[in-house]
Specification:
Elements lengths: L1 H46 L4 H7 L4 H4 L3 H22 L5 H29 L3 H12 L8 H28 L4 H10 L5
Helix pairs in contact: 1-2, 1-4, 4-5, 5-6, 5-7, 7-8
Length: about 200
């Protein structure tokens, strides 16, 4: 009977982690997509500074342009955050929380890397998700989706290690110092204290 309770308890956090991670991934894309658009267009403009049409496209306020590629990005980013959250919970059973979070980030780069490439190309060309994938495969082969994977993994190790490993640790440290849970969580997201 105690085995059944443990099985139910292990399934419940998995689904909670999966849902919470996926929902926060979609919300993040919704909030950040316009900034990502301007960053990508600014970078492209600096590389292709001779193109007046590209410079004119950068400062649009049209939701159609700002959110170009957001569907594909959300369709990959939501599972990425869900994967990070679930993997972190699994890895935390065998290693310290910071290492578990960092490893979860590295694992998620396999999903993040191709998704970001497709989104950036969609923003530049205005083509659909499938058209963009076909063009990338035709021009550079399927391996193009994994170009830069090591750098993406490094970024995700730092990002996921911070938000899933370091932030909860810092929150507990601030609570031990007498902070209420809400302020402790906010401070943990902004400040690092040595152990």
């Amino acid at each position: 009977m105690s085995t059944q309770i443990n099985e139910k308890q292990s399934v419940k956090p998995f689904w909670q982690d999966l849902f919470a991670g996926g929902l926060s991934g979609v919300a993040t894309v919704g909030l950040l997509q316009p900034m990502i658009y301007y960053k990508n267009m600014s970078q492209a403009r600096s590389i292709e500074s001779q193109s007046t049409t590209l410079a004119g496209k950068m400062w649009t306020f049209s939701p159609r342009a700002l959110y170009r590629g957001a569907g594909g990005f959300a369709a990959s980013f939501a599972p990425t955050i869900a994967l990070q959250t679930v993997a972190n919970s699994v890895f935390a059973n065998w290693m310290n929380p910071l290492a578990a979070a960092a490893l979860a980030g590295a694992a998620s780069s396999i999903v993040v890397n191709p998704a970001e490439l497709i989104m950036i190309q969609q923003q530049k060309t205005g083509k659909s998700f499938l058209q963009t994938m076909k063009i990338l495969v035709k021009t550079a082969g399927p391996q193009v989706f994994f170009r830069g994977l090591v750098y993406t993994a490094g970024r995700e190790v730092a990002f996921t290690g911070a938000y899933l490993g370091l932030t909860p640790y810092m929150k507990e440290r601030f609570k031990q110092m007498g902070a209420a849970p809400g302020p402790a969580h906010m401070a943990a997201a902004l400040v690092w204290l040595p152990p």
